[in-house]
Design brief:
Layout (H helix, E strand, L loop, with lengths): L2 H29 L3 H17 L1 H4 L3 H18 L2 H6 L3 H4 L7 H14 L5 H25 L3 E4 L2 E4 H22 L4 H21 L5 H16 L4 H22 L6 H36 L9 H22 L5 H19 L4 H19 L12 H18 L8 H23 L1
Antiparallel strand pairs: 1-2
Helix pairs in contact: 1-2, 1-4, 2-8, 4-7, 7-11, 8-9, 8-11, 9-10, 10-11, 10-12, 12-13, 13-14, 13-15, 14-15, 14-18, 15-16, 15-17, 15-18, 16-17, 17-18
Keywords: Kinase, Membrane, Transferase, Transmembrane, Transmembrane helix
Protein name: Dolichol kinase
GO molecular function: ATP-dependent diacylglycerol kinase activity
Length: 432
């Protein structure tokens, strides 16, 4: 495809997006639409158009450029004067602390770049977040009676049921049309996708369902598209047992039901993305977080902040490793180990003696784990030295400024713990 045609498609795509937003705002004011209806109409339009991107562009670059333009546009629509009286009113008339539009654009980019040229891996997750999420939101707004708490707001079981039912229909239709999977697999997989997606949507907050649902479903579909029905049933059983088990012990850990379910989702996400080698250190970080809760956290939703940080860091590492270079699993594990160490140091209250012991123990555990790294993971002879530098940096900062980590604990620890590993990973790529 010529450069001129790509540029014309890019310009047309941006003009179409602006036109849809303007048309929805006009229709909403003209016919008195509920703000949620206007917002979800734009959501559906964006999702359906995004599903056509692999058919319009034959290379990755134009799609990446288009998504960057879309992100800039979404940021502009959030400006106070635009969101209250301009085009942004069609999206942001519903008052909520949400970055759902931003998360959706990022999710589209992630599943597009990770779809490996297989349209089903891209289109099905987007179709579900586009259609099923819209059905859940509108059903919950109009008919929701049985509600449950999520962070600062509520969702309804009626909305969850609507999400599940629409997802079954969408998944079954697309699997039949776009894959060669056996009919029995299609039926079982459609129900498994719908159930998993509904649970992820139910535990998401601040619009993060627009990010988590497509990405989690892509991992799930990639892993189990041609799995035997019994294997799918076993996964479903394991997931159900995990949800129940965590719910049972949630009270003893002083965890909310919402946070406990989110922890289960996070564990399955790490297992799906990195396998056992990629999940063991994040699970250790989760245990460290539960221990660190003995020291009060000033943030209003410390558990959810931790889950969001852990998953966000993991997705960034996965994206970087799969897109620009060799697998970054060993460097990602070092970042997770740094987070775990920082949380344990916070739990001790910044005691120097305990800090020294913990730093040595975590460092030794990480070096031992390196011997189990899969062959596709990027290695460096300097990785033990990088690990020492990274863990010592975490230790020094936490011991020197323990109280700084009482607020926004997870994001601050995540930034500190991943700084050295990320720089070292990029440097290792440059030396190859």
């Amino acid at each position: 495809m010529s450069i001129a045609l790509n540029l014309a498609l890019l310009a047309g795509s941006v003009a179409l997006l602006m036109g849809v937003i303007a048309a929805v705002r006009y229709a909403g004011e003209r016919f008195g639409w509920h703000a949620e209806v206007s917002r979800k109409t734009i959501h559906v339009a964006i999702g359906l158009y995004a599903m056509a991107l692999p058919l319009l562009f034959d290379t990755r670059l134009p799609v990446v450029v288009l998504l960057l333009i879309a992100l800039a546009l979404m940021g502009w629509l959030r400006l106070p004067q635009v969101r209250t009286s301009g085009l942004g009113k069609a999206i942001h008339a519903v008052e909520r602390r949400s970055l759902g539009d931003i998360w959706l654009a990022l999710a589209i980019g992630f599943v597009f770049l990770q779809s490996e040229g297989e349209y089903i891996f891209y289109a099905l997750p987007l179709a579900i977040i586009t259609l099923s999420d819209t059905a859940a939101a509108l059903t919950g707004s109009a008919y929701g009676r049985s509600r449950f708490a999520v962070e600062d707001g509520v969702k309804s079981w009626e909305g969850v049921v609507a999400f599940f039912m629409v997802s079954v229909i969408v998944a079954m239709a697309m699997l039949l049309l776009l894959t060669d999977a056996p009919r029995l697999n299609v039926v079982v997989l459609a129900f498994a996708i719908a159930a998993f997606g509904a649970i992820v949507e139910a535990v998401s907050w601040r619009g993060l369902d627009n990010l988590f649902v497509p990405i989690c479903l892509q991992f799930f579909i990639k892993g189990y598209l041609f799995a035997e029905p019994m294997a799918l049933a076993l996964i479903a059983l394991q997931f159900g047992v995990a949800v129940i088990a965590v719910a049972v012990i949630a009270r003893r850990l002083a965890l909310s039901v919402h946070a406990s379910r989110a922890f289960v989702i996070a564990i399955f996400l790490f297992l799906g993305a990195g396998g056992p080698y990629g999940a063991v250190v994040p699970m250790f970080a989760i245990a460290a977080h539960l221990i660190a809760r003995r020291r009060p956290c000033a943030s209003p939703h410390c558990d959810l902040d931790f889950i969001a940080t852990l998953c966000g860091a993991g997705l960034i590492w996965f994206f970087v490793g799969e897109t620009i270079g060799p697998s970054a699993l060993s460097f990602y594990n070092l970042g997770m180990a740094g987070m775990a160490l920082g949380l344990l140091l916070v739990a001790t209250g910044g005691r120097i003696a305990a800090g020294a012991v913990l730093t040595i123990a975590v460092g030794a555990g990480y070096i031992a784990l390196l011997s189990l790294a899969p062959g596709h993971a990027l290695h460096s002879p300097y990785l033990p030295l990088v690990a020492a530098a990274s863990l010592l940096l975490v230790t020094a900062l936490v011991l020197a400024r323990t109280t700084w980590f009482d607020r926004w604990r997870a994001p601050r620890l995540g930034a500190v713990a991943n700084l050295v590993p990320f720089a070292a990973y990029l440097a290792t790529l440059g030396m190859q």
